[in-house]
Amino acid sequence: MKISIIIPIFNSEKYLKECINSVLQQDYTDFEIILINDGSSDNSVAICEEYVKNYKNIKLYSQKNQGVSSARNLGLNKAKGKYIFFLDSDDVMCSNMLSSIDTYLNNNIDLLVGNIIHWNTKRHREYIETNTKFVTDFNNIYDICEAYALKEYQIPWNPYQSIWKKEIIVANNVYFDTKLTVGEDCDFFFNFIKYVKKLKVLNINFVKHRVDTTGSLVKRKTYQNIFSQLIVFNKLITVFSNNDILKKYFADKYVSTMFQIELLSERKDKERCYRYVYQNINNLDYINTKIPKYLIFSKLRKIIGVKRSVKVFNTLRTVDHHLKSRAL
Q1: Which runs of E-coded beta strand occur in the chain?
Q2: What is the mean pLDDT of the chain?
Q3: Closest to 158 (Cα-Cα) out of 171, 148, 167, 150
Q4: Mapping DSSP to helix (H, G, I), strand (E, B) and coil, where does residue 210 land?
Q5: How far apart are CA 240 and CA 306, in angstroms?
Q6: For 58-107, how does the pLDDT look when each residue is reduced to its tens digit (9 = 90+)?
Q7: Percent helix, strand and coil across the chain, each to the nearest 5
Q8: At CA 32, angle to CA 28 and CA 34, rounded to 5?
Q9: Which CA distances in Å does 75 have to 6, 86, 172?
Q10: 182 in Cβ contact with 225 (< 8 Å)
């Protein structure tokens, strides 16, 4: 078995058939689909069972609701393929994707990175936010990360943006951290790439990723989500303490997350986040002041303090997001 496609599922009945069918319609057959039911209460399990009944290469495993990280980890433990691909249950795999990457997998690659099409189904809009073509000639993963950082793009850490060699995951115990509710994908990526020796970046579209689903975990500004991101970015600032480009990049991500603290409704949650920020106050010194908003924040916090500065930037951020959402 060459590829195991792991699909975590939680109350996904609306999109699930479209997701699974996008894999079955590939012009390629050397794969298995591993469906992980993470405690769904809708019709998702019944849909999965129908597919299992009709396709020998589809397996279904169920667990109590424990979150996407736990579901992916269960899928990894059940996978038989040499390579792993993660597909969210509300996304679809792009046509002919698997056949287009097969040649590269035959070269015993450790990591294969491709494009994501952002898919706004309500506005009938598809777009690639960051095309990989500017790094397709790179052969060092950290050079790629720096190239993204210098352009202020998100480093391609989304699980569904890569094909991962399972041997690296198992041999080095690289699994998703179930204590993290957000940022677990970033954490997984940087734990994995420590062991990557051979990789390829392709200008090939891997998935169409829905950006308009309601109730997305990433969109919910809860204490646990914000605190998880602060932990991940703080960790990476430390990891890249000797790499000025990536240290600044993750300091920017850290501060950008910090701006969200004022979105929390509970005062005690805000204070817990601010306490963590003050415990790691040096992170604020690493931000890239060549970027106007971070330059303004850097100067402002020295005048009115961190909390008041965050309140100012949260207001600006809310306005900016509102304008961008209207544009989409």
Answers
A1: 3-9, 31-38, 58-63, 83-86, 92-93, 111-120, 125-127, 162-165, 199-210
A2: 94
A3: 148
A4: strand
A5: 24
A6: 999 999 999 999 999 999 999 999 999 999 999 999 999 999 999 999 99
A7: 50, 15, 35
A8: 140
A9: 6, 9, 17
A10: yes
Q: How far apart (Å, rounded) are the C-alpha atoms in residues 56 and 286?
A: 53
Q: What distance in Å separates the CA atoms of residue 159 and residue 171, rounded to the nearest whole number?
A: 19
Query: How far is the CA of 323 from the CAs of 316, 319, 320, 327, 328, in angstroms?
Result: 11, 6, 5, 6, 9
Taking the CA atoms of 267, 273, 279 and 285 in sequence, report the sign of the dihedral they define. Answer: negative
Taking alpha carbons only, the member of 184, 138, 175, 131 closest to residue 157 is: 184
Distance separating alpha carbons of residues 34 and 186, to the nearest angstrom? 22
* 284 and 313 Cβ atoms separated by less than 8 Å: no
Q: Are strands 83-86 and 162-165 parallel, antiparallel or unpaired?
A: antiparallel
| C-beta atoms surrounding 126 within 10 Å | 14
Nearest-angstrom CA–CA distance, 136 and 51: 37
Residues constituting the chain: 328
**Of 9-13, 219-223, 257-261, which range is least confident?**
219-223
Q: How far is the C-alpha of 113 from the C-alpha of 164, rounded, in Å?
A: 9
Structure-token pair, residue 34: 């591993």
What does R_g of the chain's alpha carbons equal in angstroms?
A: 20
Give me 148's structure tokens.
């993204």
What are φ and ψ of residue 88, in 5° steps? -70, 150
Sign of CA dihedral 226, 231, 234, 240: negative
Spell out the residues 6+ positions from residue 1 whose beta carbon is closer than 8 angstroms to its own: 30, 31, 32, 80, 81, 82
- How many Å from the N-terminal Cα to the C-terminal Cα in the chain? 41
Question: In whole angstroms, what is the distance from residue 33 CA to residue 58 CA?
Answer: 5
